[in-house]
Specification:
- This is N-acetyltransferase family protein.
- The chain has a domain at 8-123: Gcn5-related N-acetyltransferase (GNAT) (Aminopeptidase, 3-Layer(aba) Sandwich).
- It is 26% helix and 33% strand.
- It has helices spanning 18-31, 43-51, 106-118, 135-143; strands spanning 8-12, 61-66, 72-80, 90-97, 125-131, 147-158, 161-171.
- Helix 3 links the parallel strand 4 (90-97) and strand 5 (125-131).
- A 7-stranded mixed sheet has the order 1-2-3-4-5-7-6, with helices on both faces.
- It is an alpha+beta fold and 175 residues long.
- The protein contains 4 helices and 7 strands.
- Helix 1 (18-31) packs across helix 2.
């Protein structure tokens, strides 16, 4: 349950979620610099991304839905940090929340479930890149134990301007 009383279910993403996940992501593509994709995706184009996140293993896709309406409120992922084999124990994480569901604890629920799942996997570090400014995302990541590593200055260009990306790290097997 999120603070406004909405019952929320967090579960693995499925192909049935593809249209809703694509629409949610496309909002961030067209309206924000949170992602550096410049062109919206079709569900067909986004399908390989969805299929690259099985229900188990280090690369997950978790979806939060309203239990009454079954509407997708957000999703969190972990995926490869880099393609070379030695990077396998590291993942890059992200969370996207529907614009009308932000600030209600959906991101916290998603990340809580994602890191609980990753605790059972052979994952050593999680990394997250956060386009600046994005105070809400920085606070969420810090709440989950991420620490700031550094900032790539003006690393991406979108909407006619350059954007910085701050990089964060979470130690997953620090115990």
């Amino acid at each position: 349950m999120v603070p406004n009383g909405t019952e929320v279910q967090v579960r693995p993403g499925t192909e049935a979620d593809l249209d809703a996940l694509t629409a949610l992501y496309n909002h961030y593509v067209t309206e924000t610099a949170i992602t550096f994709d410049l062109t919206p995706f079709t569900p067909v184009e986004r399908r390989p991304w969805l299929l690259s996140h099985p229900e188990d293993g280090p690369h997950r896709l978790l979806v939060a839905t309203d239990t009454d309406s079954r509407r997708v409120l957000g999703y969190a992922t972990s995926g490869p940090h880099r393609p070379k084999a030695a990077y396998a124990p590291s993942v890059e994480t992200s969370v996207y929340v529907a614009p009308d569901a932000t600030g209600r604890g959906v991101g916290t629920l998603l990340y809580g479930a994602l890191f609980a799942a990753l605790a059972e996997e052979d994952v050593h570090r999680a990394f997250a890149g956060i386009t600046q400014p994005n105070e809400a995302s920085v606070k969420l990541h810090e709440r989950f134990g991420f620490r700031h590593l550094g900032t790539f200055g003006e690393v991406g260009r979108k909407f006619g301007r350059y954007w910085d990306v701050a990089w964060y790290q979470k130690d997953l097997d620090a115990d």
